[in-house]
Task: inverse folding
C-alpha cells in the first residue's frame, strides 16, 4: 500500500492510498483522484519521506507547568484551518436537517412562526439567499465538499 501526500491548485493538502505508483497514475489520468475539499482533479503529488517504524519511544514523564496568566495564541497554518473547517462542516451536517431545494420556503416558514424552529440546510439560488437576508432571515452559504455529501469509503 502506498500512501501519498497530494495537493490541489488551491493548496488543499490531503492523503491518497493506492496499491502502487501505477495505480495512482492510472487513477490520476482517469480523473478519479480529486481534492476532498473542492473537487478539483488537477492533483499533484507532494514530496514525502518514507516512514520507518523503529519501535515505540520510551514515554517521558510529564512535568506539571504553571498555567500562564495570559492566554497563548497561535496562528493556524493552512492544514489546521482546513481540518477545522472540515470539522465544522461535519458538525453542521450532523446537527441540521437537509430540506434540499425547499430551503428558502422552509426558512421563511420558521421565521414567520409557521413551522418549528430548527437547524436546517439546503440549496438556494443567489437571488433567494439575497431575498431572505433582506427579509431579516439569517442565512449563511456553506459550501460542502463532495466527499462529505455521500458515504465515505
Result:
Amino acid at each position: 500500500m502506498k500512501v501519498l501526500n497530494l495537493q490541489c491548485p488551491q493548496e488543499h493538502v490531503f492523503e491518497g492510498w493506492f496499491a502502487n505508483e501505477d495505480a495512482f497514475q492510472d487513477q490520476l489520468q482517469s480523473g478519479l483522484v480529486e481534492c476532498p475539499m473542492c473537487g478539483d482533479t488537477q492533483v499533484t503529488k507532494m514530496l514525502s519521506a518514507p516512514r520507518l517504524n523503529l519501535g515505540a519511544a520510551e514515554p517521558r514523564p510529564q512535568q506539571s507547568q504553571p498555567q500562564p496568566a495570559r492566554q497563548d495564541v497561535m496562528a493556524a497554518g493552512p492544514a489546521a484551518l482546513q481540518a477545522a473547517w472540515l470539522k465544522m462542516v461535519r458538525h453542521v451536517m450532523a446537527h441540521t436537517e437537509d430540506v434540499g431545494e425547499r430551503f428558502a420556503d422552509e426558512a421563511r416558514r420558521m421565521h414567520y412562526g409557521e413551522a418549528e424552529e430548527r437547524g436546517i440546510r439546503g440549496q438556494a439560488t443567489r437571488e433567494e439567499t439575497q431575498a431572505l437576508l433582506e427579509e431579516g432571515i439569517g442565512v449563511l452559504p456553506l459550501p460542502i465538499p463532495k466527499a462529505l455529501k455521500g458515504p465515505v469509503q
